[in-house]
TrEMBL record:
Belongs to the UPF0301 (AlgH) family. It comes from the Bacteria. It holds the Pfam family DUF179. PANTHER family: UNCHARACTERIZED PROTEIN YQGE, UPF0301 PROTEIN YQGE. This is UPF0301 protein FHS49_003227. InterPro entries: AlgH-like (IPR003774).
Amino acid sequence: MDMPAFLSGKMLLAMPGIGDPRFEHAVIAMCSHDSQGALGVGIGHVIRGMGFHELLAQFDIAPGVAPDVPVHAGGPVEPQRGFILHGNDWGGQDSIHVGDRWVLTGTIDILRAIAAGTGPRQWIAALGYAGWGPGQLEGELTRHGWFVADGDASALFDRRTEERWRAAYAAAGVDASLLAPAAGRA
């Protein structure tokens, strides 16, 4: 089976029965994938009881015009570290452009810009990320667990969190209700 070499700008969708409850129905926006490993940010689940205003308060930033939207569970690695996935209409220090699809920023300047109303038009806040060492993700892709789907800005910004998993499968032509939690044998 030929594995995609670089998954930046794609979506990783957890298959039913992935075996790790942290990734059940996960939707991960892949931001970096090369020979050194991979990094993605989960956009399929929110952190219950955590709003964006609370995140801003941790940095003594007044919420200004920022909506108090839920913060996403970005992944199990460094769950205290924050990231903003956003459109290409804003770029700050250390922003990583993921092709022409979206941008990843993990610095405080974007929080201030969002609060001031000068940040990106579309954005998602997340704490933590999903990370893989060299070759680890490629190995996981050869086993039951992950499905690679095309990523685009509408998958991130135009869907409600609880719709993303099913909608990303549908965009790939897959009816998620027909997925089995285990692989079969022929």
